[in-house]
Specification:
Bound molecules: zinc ion
Shape: globular
Distance between the termini: 25 Å
Strand order of the largest sheet: 7-8-9-10
Structural class: alpha+beta
Number of helices: 19
Largest sheet: 4 strands, antiparallel
Radius of gyration: 26 Å
Helix content: 40-55%
Length: 496
């Protein structure tokens, strides 16, 4: 068995608030879903992958329950998906506390096909985008949406009225007070799928898929390591004399510092006006010039006692980047040192990689009981080591405990020498089948054989009796491969 380094590094504090996305539609007869997160460089990271027979509610329930089990029962805080009713229902059932968001890009992409029949469809599209993206309160969204429907005679359009009913699940103003690590669209998953496509063709067998999945992880890891190295060895110069910018320069990865710098540049388009102030609490109106004739206005509040700044645009809340409007107010208030609450460890270049090693998906052919025990031990000991390494005294206690435990285990092993009780155990295929197989449900007219031409040929060469056996074993093995990768990976992430 080999070990490959984990290809992703999710910030320790906010992995659970990092929204995984799932994107469907990767390969022919099997439905491929990928769980994608964001690392401290803002890069997409592949957290897990699934292959399902169909996209029914029950299948998604099975998938999400597997995910939850891998996460030790901890549901993610946010979950971004395509506009899919089955996934919505399954998520509501399996993760009722998780904030579910539909990909806005997929919805907006449908505008031409849904509204093409109207005379002024180009104007309609432009106005709808304006209402969706530039409504800075729920009330103003409601007003703007109604005006939009009335102006274009769209009050009877069913697609739009259904979308309005579900506005809480896709319109930014309803969702951006939650942290999404900059994710608003499942395009990250789509790009991950196109990334898969570089490695895998339609003729690839399932076993090849698993191996290439591992290569895909390795490639992502390489990209992250290169970014880590660049952050460590180089410094991006500050664009201003602001000590706040220098705070971010010191803390953030290059990618995130560039985002902060973009906000500093954007500050030059902002005009800050104090509306009222009492007992250290001030309300500002920041006008931002977005074109020669258009100014957007944002309400920004500043509490000098709590050193707290809050802007209506919710950029900090949703992306963890302090916005240009808030920065303008901080300048106005002559704040020279930013409260640490605005410098997120999530984007820190000093983020610790707790999970430095992970098994490759094809390292281990079956999810053996020994592997399960190993995984459970690693999972526990990681927490203990984190705790112990805080001080020399704690570390010494742990070393003594290790010595005692080793002596006890060696004594037991010596006592049982010659017996098989501590030896390698055979895998139990049935138990994994029970864990990984989705409920048997009706498919939607897809071909019966879903395993691809190469595998079909292999199977066809066998006897009829063997054919059934080979097929079932390959399927079981495959799901075990995926399960190993998936469970191992997520077990580690659940610990962050
Ligand atoms: Zn703002």
């Amino acid at each position: 068995m080999q070990e490959a380094e984990l290809p992703l590094s999710i910030s320790e504090m906010s992995f659970h608030s990092t929204p995984p996305t799932i994107q469907i539609g990767f390969r022919y007869n099997l439905v491929c879903g990928s769980f994608v997160g964001v690392n401290h460089h803002g890069q997409s990271t592949l957290l897990g992958c699934s292959l399902m027979k169909n996209e029914e509610i029950e299948s998604f329930k099975w998938l999400f329950q597997c995910w939850l089990r891998c996460m030790g029962g901890n549901a993610p805080k946010g979950f971004l998906t395509d506009q899919c009713a089955s996934m919505k229902r399954a998520l509501e059932a399996c993760m009722p506390t998780t904030v579910h968001r539909w990909c806005i890009w997929h919805i907006m992409k449908k505008i031409p096909s849904k509204l093409n029949g109207y005379k002024r469809h180009a104007d309609i599209e432009q106005e709808m985008r304006q209402v969706v993206w530039n409504s800075h309160s729920k009330d103003s969204f409601d007003r703007n949406w109604n005006d939009f429907l009335l102006n274009f005679g769209l009050a009877d359009n069913k697609w739009l009225s259904d979308l309005y009913e579900d506005c809480h699940i896709w319109v930014p103003i309803y969702l951006d007070h939650h942290f999404w690590a900059g994710m608003r669209s499942t395009q990250r998953s789509e790009s991950m799928h196109s990334f898969f496509n570089k490695y895998i063709t339609r003729n690839s067998s399932l076993i090849q898929f698993v191996k290439q999945y591992d290569n895909c992880l390795g490639s992502r890891e390489q990209a992250e390591r290169e970014s880590d190295a660049a952050d460590f060895h180089t410094v991006i110069p500050c664009a201003t004399k602001s000590s706040i910018e220098a705070q971010f320069q010191d803390a953030y990865t290059h990618a995130k510092f560039r985002e902060v710098q973009a906000q500093f540049r954007g500050k030059t388009n902002c005009i800050t006006r104090l509306k009222n102030s009492a007992l250290g609490y001030s309300v500002y109106e920041v006008g931002e010039q977005v074109s020669s004739s258009i100014f957007n206005k944002f309400v920004v509040t500043y509490d000098s006692v709590a050193a707290e700044v809050k802007c209506q645009c919710l950029l900090f809340e949703s992306r963890g980047i302090l916005c240009r409007h808030a920065l303008s107010v901080l300048s106005f208030e002559q704040v020279s040192q930013l409260s640490p609450r605005y410098i997120l460890e999530r984007w820190s270049k000093k983020v610790k990689r707790r999970h430095t090693h992970i098994k490759s998906s094809h390292d281990e052919p079956l999810m053996e009981p020994r592997s399960k025990r190993f995984d459970q031990l690693v999972f526990r000991s990681q927490n203990i080591c984190e705790f112990a390494s805080e001080s020399k005294e704690l570390t010494a206690i742990l070393h003594r405990a290790y010595d005692n435990v080793m002596a006890e285990m060696e004594a037991l092993k010596a006592k049982r020498k010659g017996t098989s009780s501590l030896s390698h155990e055979d895998a139990n295929l049935e138990s994994v089948n029970e864990l990984q197989s989705p409920p048997r449900i009706r498919t939607r007219g897809r071909p019966k054989n879903r395993l691809g031409s190469k595998l079909e040929k292999q199977i066809a060469n066998a006897t009829k009796k063997k054919k059934t056996k080979v097929l079932s074993e390959v399927k079981v093995m495959f799901f075990k491969f995926v399960a190993i990768e998936f469970i191992f990976l997520v077990n580690r992430l659940a610990n962050v």
